[in-house]
Every structure is written in structure tokens, then in C-alpha cells.
């Protein structure tokens, strides 16, 4: 009987007796890409690496391999040897040469990018007929990635020449999961952690709700599961169901970031806490406002205080108490002009602009007549399929104001900012950035340029300000150098620039402030003790126009400067434009970092209006009403319509109903976010 006994080996460790492989004990740190125990050894938990980049290599995804999909390949029409190599490659690997890149199968695309080190490609004499002097030969196709990375290891000149084809990409070791292989392979109900993190939050929540743990599993992980479900439910309730758990924080909007931080706090069920949120409805579709309000009211009902800075009408109407600041902006504000419940504020419409709009005493009117948007001409983007887009055919009527609408995550930015914008810019030779996947672009010949007007700062240092950005400061400097005192001293316009030596204060180099490095604390800016914040030296400040020095002008508001320079047309024009779009309260020398996103965006629009009227430009704006009051939106619409009246085309991604109702053409994407979106639901007036 002993001969029939089986030998069974057992281990106290996680090991397999068949393959004799052992695994370390799994701990929470093993599943964290922020821990050395869990992160990918190659990218150290970043999920990205620098190398050959597909977006930079495949410069024409709408083209075929023969027609130039790979920007670095020679033109087969002018290079017969390369044409023969392409034909041989096609025969050896059954690779279509005339299909658009985006229609190739993943295996075919992988072959082009990564190659095949084992199979020789034979170039025959028949294929080489056009290259009369070439003899048959064979080669190994190693792929775009290995070829470029091998060349990058050569001299600096080689690396520099390849810089346009390289960039950030998913880590080749972990595939962008950021985890080491053992942790990434662990499954829960046949699903790995990276797979769970790449699901939209709504799907992640459904997965956890469907786990149905048994009694033993509940004892081990019941509390953890309930807490995860609670926090995911809050994120979904505040309108973030389209996000994924592995989404990088730098890619989120301000409103999305706030709602995520709020979810982290809400999960703790604290009481007696003051929550302060700055415009949490940014990027939120009106459909989702109710869910956000319900979540905020739950926090209030737990015994907390919720304080919002907000302009959204629905949120204002739902507040327990409102405080309206004004009466104007900048130096004209800073006073509580009205306060009370929404009903009480509506009764104070004479004092409160906000109360006037809430009560209906003031409103943003419909346009008396809309532009004809049905008969064309059109800008057409056909077959757009970037991210969740489903072969969309986009038709934008030119010389109109078009609104792109839809719930958050429905594909608006993928369509406009990631596909249309770079495609038009590339066609107009204004950029080399690769657009998202599409089939065809028509109507670009009717445009002369594309302008993306976003809410990014107009500058990052105190040297940038509204006057320099719109160009009016150049004219002011020209005027000052024509003053009698300046002519006697031989001053040129550069003397009145705070960016050049000569006229500026050299102690602070024209900044008006000096930076004190605090080492372990944030740096502090203090007023320059030499010029007292005036930026210029004493000799320069002695030159005056109407009793005002160049420093006095920079400290003036736009409205006051407009009065000072009323008799100087070249200066009056740009200042009048800034004043007309509601920026009369800004000082000409206000440093760029202190401007809000809405102010920066309107300054950019003013700069466009100040340029010679050429028309035929495409303007793209992503939620331009962010941070704007009802009255500011009215002024913004006036500016946008002025640009359209000059023969330009404006496309606005927007959730604000006051903007949408004034558009000439509306294109609504959806019907849902993520995989449930990516379609044009309806379009028209």
C-alpha cells in the first residue's frame, strides 16, 4: 500500500507545489502605486515613461500607410526602394497599405509600432522594377518604437533629431497600471484592481454592489466594502459618475477637484464643520445640479455649515441665505449690498443686481433675429472617434455662434478641443499637434486662423498685465516719449518699459516687488523699498502727461484711463473695448497672476477685438461663463456677437442656459457620459 501513497507538499507561504513559484504575503501597501512595495519598478508608480510616442509617430491617423500615416517614413511616390519595401512588408504580414490607420486591427497597428524580430521580409525583383539599379534583398522589420529608441541611444545629434517623435507614453513594463506585476494580477471576482480603476465610477459602484460577499467574507471586508460603496455613491451623486478612479488630478477641472475633496470629507460623517466651496457647479450639466444640491443639503443636515461662492441660478434659489457683494467689481465692490433668503433678495432688486436677475426684473434677452445657420457654408469633421466618440459627423455653420452641449463626460472636449482644434490648426499649418481620430475634414479653406480662448492666465509673473497683453501699453509709451521733458532728455519708448534697463527701478528690476525666499515656506513678495512699488526710477517718473506719470497710468483703472486718454484714438480704442466687456474696474498694471480665469478670458477676447478686422477666424471657447455673474455673461455675449458680426465663427462648449438660448446653432452630445455618450443626440436652432 505504501507504493500507492501520494506525496502532498504543503507550505506556510504563498507558493505553488507544481510550478514551485512563491509569492510574498499581500498587504495593502502591495496595491498602492505610492509605495515602493507596490509600485512598478520601471516607472516608480507614475505609469508613464519617455520614449517613442504613437501620437507623434502616426501624424495622419485618417491616412493609410501608403499615403503618409507615419510622418517619419519617406514618400513611396518619390522613393521606389521604400515603396518596394512597403509592398514586401504588406505581402509578408498581410498588412493593408490603403486602409486608414484607425481602421487597422490592433494586431496590425502593433506590428507597425513594435515590429517582428523573427520573420524576414523578402523584397523581390518584381517589386523593385521602379528602382532600376536595386538588387533583391531581405530585411527584418523591427518596428517604429525599437528603431527610434535604438537611434536615441546614439549621439546627441541623433537624440535631438528624434525629439519630435518622442514624448510621454504608457509605461511599457506595467502598461500604465502603475503597479508591479504580482499586485496587478490579483483578481476579485475575475476583475483586477487596474481593471476596476479604469471603469467609470458608475460601473465601479455597480461592481461593488454586485459582489454579494458570503458570511466569512463579510466578517473580513464588510466594513471596507460599505465604506467604499458610501464614498463612490457620493461621487456619483455629485455628478462625477463619468470619471475613472485612475484619472490624474492635474486633468480635472476646478469644480471636479472640489467635489472629489468634498466626497473625501463626506465619507467621514463629521459634524460641526464649515465647508467652503468655490463654484462647485463648474463643468456640471443642469441635469446634475439637483444631485449636487441634495448632497450639500445632507452635509448641512448632519449639523455642518456649507458656504458657497456661486453664480448658478438653481443653487442660489436653493440657498437658505444669500449675501450679494457689490455694487460693482474691483475697487467698486467689497460691500454687502443685500442679504437674506432668496425671496428677500428678489425684493431688493433695486439694490442688488443678483436679486434683479433672480426676480426676473433683469434678464439676458433672446436675440431679436438669429443668423441663418441651415444653408451653410459649413466646417465639417467626419468620422470622429476619439475616446468615447462614435464615428460622429460634425457640421458647424460658419459665421455663426454655435453651442456644443451635453452632460459632463459625453465627449464635448474630445470632439472640439482634442480633435477639431488640432485638426484645423494642422491643416492651416499653425501647429504640428496630432488630432484625435477622424476620417475627413472639409471646409477649412474658408478659414484663415484658429484661436482657442481659454481661462488660462495671460502670464505667470507681475511683468504681464492687461495693458501689455492688449498692446495698449506700447502706444502709451510712444505717447510719453513725445512729451517735452522726454524729448529734451532724448528718451525713447524703451525708457518707459519696466522690462528693460534704463528707465525701470534696477533694485526690483521693474517688478515693483521683491521676492523673499522663505526656504521651507512659500516665497513672499514685498513692496520694493527703493521705488515703493512704482517700478520706475525717479528720472523716468518726472515725465508726465496731463500731470500723470507712467506709474500713475499703470495704477489707474481702465475706466479712469479712458477719460485721461479720450483725445488719443490709438489708446482710447483698446481701453474702450476693455471697458465695454466689463473690465473697466481693472487697473492697467494689475499683475497677471492676480486675475481670475474669467478676467483672463475676457482680456484675450478684447485683444482679438483690438486687432484689424479680417474675419474668417474660428474661435473655440470651453465654458467661458465659468466664474461670471449674470451681468458679466450679458457683456460676454455682446463681445462674442461682435466677433461673429465681423465674419468669424465661434464655437462654445457650454452648460449655461442663458448662453445656449442665444446661440444660432446647438449641437447636443450624449445621451449619457462615458460609454453611454459620444453621439450627436440632436442639432439645430
Folded structure, characterized:
This protein has 685 residues and is an alpha/beta fold. Among the domains are: 50-170, Orthogonal Bundle (Helicase, Ruva Protein, domain 3); 197-320, Rossmann fold (3-Layer(aba) Sandwich), CATH 3.40.50; 375-457 and 614-685, Rossmann fold. Helices cover 34% and strands 15% of the residues. The protein has a 6-stranded mixed β-sheet, with helices on both faces. A 3-stranded antiparallel β-sheet has the order 14-13-16, with helices on one face. Strands 1-2 form a two-stranded antiparallel ribbon. Helix 9 runs antiparallel to helix 10 (254-266) and helix 23 (597-610) packs parallel to helix 24 (630-645). The longest helix is centred in the first third of the chain and has 23 residues, at 215-237. It is globular.
Amino acid at each position: 500500500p505504501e507504493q500507492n501513497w501520494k506525496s502532498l507538499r504543503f507550505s506556510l507561504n504563498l507558493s505553488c507545489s507544481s510550478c514551485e513559484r512563491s509569492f510574498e504575503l499581500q498587504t495593502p501597501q502591495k496595491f498602492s502605486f505610492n509605495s515602493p512595495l507596490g509600485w512598478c519598478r520601471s516607472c516608480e508608480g507614475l505609469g508613464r515613461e519617455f520614449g517613442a510616442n504613437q501620437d507623434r509617430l502616426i501624424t495622419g491617423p485618417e491616412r493609410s500607410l501608403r499615403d503618409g500615416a507615419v510622418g517619419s517614413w519617406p514618400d513611396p511616390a518619390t522613393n521606389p526602394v521604400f515603396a518596394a519595401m512597403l509592398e514586401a512588408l504588406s505581402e509578408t504580414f498581410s498588412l493593408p497599405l490603403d486602409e486608414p490607420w484607425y481602421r487597422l486591427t490592433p494586431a496590425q497597428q502593433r506590428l507597425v509600432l513594435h515590429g517582428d524580430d523573427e520573420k524576414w521580409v523578402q523584397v523581390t525583383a518584381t517589386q523593385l522594377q521602379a528602382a532600376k539599379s536595386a538588387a533583391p534583398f531581405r530585411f527584418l522589420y523591427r518596428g517604429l518604437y525599437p528603431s527610434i529608441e535604438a537611434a536615441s541611444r546614439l549621439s546627441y545629434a541623433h537624440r535631438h533629431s528624434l525629439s519630435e517623435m518622442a514624448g510621454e507614453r504608457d509605461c511599457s513594463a506595467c502598461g500604465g497600471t502603475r503597479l508591479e506585476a504580482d499586485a496587478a494580477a490579483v483578481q476579485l471576482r475575475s476583475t483586477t484592481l487596474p481593471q476596476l480603476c479604469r471603469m467609470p465610477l458608475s460601473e465601479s459602484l455597480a461592481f461593488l454592489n454586485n459582489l454579494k460577499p458570503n458570511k466569512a467574507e463579510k466578517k473580513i471586508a464588510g466594513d471596507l466594502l460599505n465604506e467604499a460603496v458610501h464614498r463612490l455613491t457620493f461621487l456619483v451623486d455629485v455628478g462625477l459618475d463619468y470619471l475613472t478612479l485612475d484619472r490624474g488630478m492635474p486633468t480635472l477641472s476646478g469644480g471636479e477637484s472640489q467635489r472629489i475633496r468634498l466626497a473625501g470629507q463626506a465619507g467621514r460623517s463629521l459634524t460641526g464643520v464649515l465647508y467652503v466651496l468655490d463654484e462647485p457647479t463648474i463643468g456640471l450639466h443642469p441635469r446634475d445640479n439637483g444631485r449636487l444640491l441634495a448632497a450639500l443639503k445632507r452635509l448641512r443636515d448632519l449639523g455642518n455649515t456649507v458656504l458657497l461662492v456661486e453664480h448658478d441660478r438653481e443653487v442660489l434659489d436653493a440657498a437658505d441665505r444669500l449675501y450679494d457683494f457689490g455694487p460693482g467689481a474691483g475697487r467698486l465692490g467689497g460691500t454687502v449690498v443685500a442679504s437674506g433668503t432668496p425671496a428677500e433678495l428678489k425684493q431688493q432688486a433695486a439694490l442688488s443686481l443678483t436679486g434683479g436677475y433672480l426676480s426676473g426684473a433683469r434678464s439676458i434677452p433672446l436675440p431679436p433675429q438669429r443668423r441663418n445657420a441651415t444653408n451653410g457654408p459649413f466646417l465639417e469633421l467626419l468620422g470622429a472617434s476619439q475616446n468615447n466618440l462614435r464615428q460622429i459627423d460634425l457640421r458647424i455653420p460658419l459665421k455663426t455662434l454655435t453651442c456644443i452641449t451635453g452632460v459632463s463626460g459625453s465627449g464635448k472636449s474630445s470632439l472640439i478641443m482634442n480633435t477639431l482644434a488640432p485638426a484645423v490648426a494642422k491643416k492651416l499649418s499653425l501647429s504640428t499637434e496630432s488630432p484625435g481620430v477622424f476620417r475627413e475634414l472639409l471646409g477649412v479653406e474658408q478659414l484663415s486662423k484658429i484661436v482657442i480662448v481659454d481661462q488660462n492666465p495671460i502670464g505667470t509673473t507681475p511683468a504681464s498685465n492687461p495693458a501689455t497683453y492688449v498692446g495698449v501699453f506700447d502706444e502709451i509709451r510712444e505717447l510719453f516719449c513725445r512729451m517735452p521733458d522726454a524729448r529734451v532728455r532724448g528718451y525713447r519708448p524703451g525708457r518707459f518699459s519696466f522690462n528693460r534697463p534704463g528707465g525701470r527701478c534696477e533694485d526690483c528690476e521693474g517688478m515693483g516687488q521683491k521676492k523673499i525666499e522663505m526656504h521651507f515656506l512659500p516665497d513672499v513678495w514685498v513692496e520694493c523699498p527703493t521705488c515703493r512699488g512704482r517700478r520706475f526710477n525717479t528720472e523716468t517718473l518726472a515725465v508726465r502727461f496731463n500731470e500723470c506719470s507712467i506709474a500713475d497710468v499703470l495704477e489707474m483703472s481702465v475706466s479712469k484711463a479712458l477719460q485721461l486718454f479720450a483725445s488719443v484714438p490709438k489708446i482710447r480704442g483698446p481701453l474702450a473695448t476693455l471697458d465695454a466687456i466689463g473690465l473697466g474696474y481693472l487697473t492697467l498694471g494689475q499683475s497677471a497672476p492676480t486675475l481670475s480665469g474669467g478676467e483672463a478670458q475676457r482680456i484675450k477676447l478684447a485683444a482679438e477685438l483690438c486687432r484689424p478686422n479680417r474675419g474668417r477666424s474660428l474661435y473655440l471657447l470651453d465654458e467661458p461663463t465659468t466664474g461670471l455673474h449674470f451681468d458679466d455673461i450679458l457683456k460676454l455675449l455682446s463681445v462674442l456677437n461682435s466677433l461673429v458680426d465681423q465674419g468669424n465663427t465661434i464655437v462654445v462648449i457650454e452648460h449655461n442656459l442663458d448662453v445656449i438660448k442665444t446661440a444660432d446653432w446647438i449641437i447636443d452630445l450624449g445621451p449619457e457620459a462615458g460609454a453611454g455618450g459620444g453621439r450627436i443626440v440632436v442639432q439645430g436652432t
